[in-house]
Write a structure and sequence with these properties.
Number of strands of chain A: 2
Structural class of chain A: mainly alpha
Order of helices and strands of chain B: HHHH
Oligomer: heterodimer
Structural class of chain B: mainly alpha
Distance between the termini of chain A: 74 Å
Radius of gyration of chain B: 15 Å
Helix content of chain A: 55-70%
Number of domains of chain A: 2
Order of helices and strands of chain A: HHHHHHHHHHEHHHEHHHH
Number of strands of chain B: 0
Chain lengths: 352, 55
């Protein structure tokens, strides 16, 4: 009897569908996002019930609902599907592939195209000026371009030519062209549905949200994840990314704020990142990692202050969470002063 | 509180937390039927401003 009891000792719960029990939240998020689109479309198509019966009312609805749809779509692809690209959430690879198609089309992406941009391009070539074309371009002093320039230009204007070139050159593997063609066709079939139902609805509640998702939400997120004050070549080991500690932000954004941790150990499950951060904390303090007490939203809010983007940027890259103060030799101003003393010449890449 | 109800509450809390943004979006979009599109627009702006301050 004792042996039986020992044999049936409680084991950690395992899901038959999901790779990790917490991954149910990723799938659930996508289902609610699609429900939001369905609801918005229904209201647009039934003006007698919704009261959307004039162009002013429709414009207000597009601006309000369209912005909300774009916001959640940006998170759905840039954070949520992103988790799936690193660690597939389903046990079945086929289910993962097909769920992927209905995961990214509402964000304006074929699933494989986003995987390629993020894993093959961004993670494998992080901050390389030519090879990592997903990030903001650099100014002469090494800093990122202005956040507004990046938000307005990167999607789709810069992404599309890079994707075409990468797929033509089979970047990622010999099978890339076939996969890109297949995913592109599936995407077009799904993405075109709202255009057949009502082109004006598709423009306001489909294309506009996808610009918000990619330009505003994912664009500003990418910007603040990797924005830094000094030249990478001279920076300490972890200056490729920033870590954001806000609990509200990390709860609602699948712990994406632990971004230094994520880039160094992309196979760590998203739900384990807060515990993983605690393990790395001392090392981060010692190495002067940029850690801030808020999340991306507040960071982007600082960097996008109208007519004060440079001040906001400087404020953001200078912020440091309490308890994570950098060792003096790693403080940018100290390093600049030391470089000046050593060489008796201005260190423009540090002082810009 | 029993162990299972505690687990259920934690799971519900985690779901509400992780899905907060799409749930709020769903409520605001569906609520257009009750309060009209201008209020939806105003609430979206207020919600965005709240989040950019706390997140």
């Amino acid at each position: 009897m004792a042996a039986v009891a020992e044999g049936t000792r409680a084991r950690p719960r395992r899901s038959r569908i999901f790779s990790h029990p917490a991954d149910v939240h990723c799938a659930s998020y996508n289902v609610i996002v699609l429900l939001c689109y369905g609801t918005a479309f229904w209201l647009w198509l039934h003006p007698e019930t919704s009261g959307l019966d004039g162009w002013q009312a429709r414009l207000a609805f597009v601006l309000g609902a369209g912005f909300l749809l774009g916001w959640i779509s940006g998170v759905n692809v840039g954070v949520n599907f992103h988790n799936h690209t690193h660690r597939p959430i389903f046990r079945s690879p086929a289910l993962g592939r097909w769920f992927g198609h209905v995961w990214t089309f509402s964000g304006g992406w074929p699933a494989y195209y986003w995987y390629h941009s993020h894993v093959v391009v961004h993670h494998a070539n992080l901050l390389h000026e030519q090879r990592d074309w997903t990030l903001p371009r650099r100014r002469a002093d090494g800093r990122f371009e202005n956040i507004y320039t990046y938000v307005l230009l990167h999607w789709p204007w810069r992404y599309v030519p890079h994707l075409v070139r990468d797929f033509s050159l089979r970047r990622g593997g010999p099978w890339v062209r076939r996969r890109a063609l297949k995913d592109g066709l599936i995407f077009l079939a799904l993405w075109s549905i709202p255009w057949f139902i009502d082109p004006w609805m598709a423009l306001g509640l489909w294309l506009f949200p996808q610009w918000i998702a990619n330009g505003v939400i994912m664009g500003s997120g990418m910007y603040v994840q990797h924005a830094m004050s000094e030249g990478l070549a001279d920076g300490p080991g972890h200056y490729h990314s920033n870590t954001f500690l806000s609990r509200f932000f990390n709860l609602t954004m699948f712990n994406i704020g632990y971004h230094v941790e994520h880039h160094e150990y992309p196979q760590v499950h998203w739900s384990a990142l807060p515990r993983f951060h605690k393990k790395l904390r001392e090392r981060f303090v010692r190495e002067g990692v940029h850690v801030v007490p808020y999340g991306y939203y507040h960071a982007a809010h600082k960097c996008t202050r109208p007519f004060q983007t440079e001040d906001g940027f400087s404020e953001f890259v200078g912020d440091q969470a309490r308890g994570y103060e950098r060792p003096l030799e790693l403080v940018p101003a100290r390093r600049a002063a030391r470089a000046l003393t050593d060489s008796e010449a201005p260190a423009t890449h540090l002082t810009g | 509180m029993s162990l299972s109800s505690g687990r259920t509450l934690r799971a519900l809390g985690a779901w509400l937390g992780h899905s907060l943004f799409p749930l709020v979006a769903l409520a605001l979009i569906a609520g257009t039927v009750l309060w009209g599109p201008w209020v939806t627009l105003a609430l979206a702006i207020v919600w965005w401003n709240v989040v950019t301050r706390i997140g």
